[in-house]
Amino acid sequence: MAYVPAPLPDTGRDSATAAMKGGVLGALTSRALLAPLAAVVVFLVFWEGLVWINGWPDYVMASPSDLPPAYAKYWELFIVMGWQTLWRTVVGLILAVVVGLGIGMLMGFSRTMRDALYPLLVGFNAVPKATVVPIVALLFVGQHDFNTVLIAFMISFFPIAVSVSIGLSTLEPEYRDILRSLGASQTTIFWKIALPKTLPEFFGALKVAVTLAFIGTNLMEIVSPHGRGLGALFDSGKTNSDYPLMFAVLIALAFLGIVLYYVVVWLERTFAGWAERPQG
Fold it and tell me: Where are the domains of the chain?
């Protein structure tokens, strides 16, 4: 009878499976996940307790326990209008990034342009955008998508432009002189030194711009007579005195904002993770 050796255990596959399970378990139990979840739970408990202690009815102040019935009743509207709010916000944010980067680079590389544009940008940003929304709505009647994207862009591009400008204008001249002495062009200096130095400031401003873009989107959705999206759903709840629906919309907006925020955090760790210093 021929000798048949016993198969060797597949240690490589076992170790890979164990590593994958350990990675998933580690991600689910990491401080980065547990800390914000705990904060959300504490906030909801505090909110529920505040409503219960004061004895507020749902037409004065909705509690977290009033929100699930609203989501169950209007779930189709939340999906449809949530998507409309999200894509307009993202488009406005992308435009803000493109224009903000362009203006920031222009001001960062040119002292003359910085002196000329800064007063205009500060003055424009000082104008309350709630007063601009009706003007835009009347100026482009019936073009709700364009109006909403425009307001989201107008509110969110300012911090991006300023942060990029500051990052480029504060570039140490020693780095620039060394690369120039080695024959580097202005383009090489930008890609090798200026851009990496500006990335932390850019992503910091982008985190702020995400929330500002949502504010602009919902301002237009509420004010515009042709409004669609979560802002329009909020306005419908206000008209019908449906306070649980109104608070459910606010929580949905907060959720979308948090999702976009963590998308920016992921991009920051991918492209500028080297700038994050470990904390004890």
Answer: 68-268
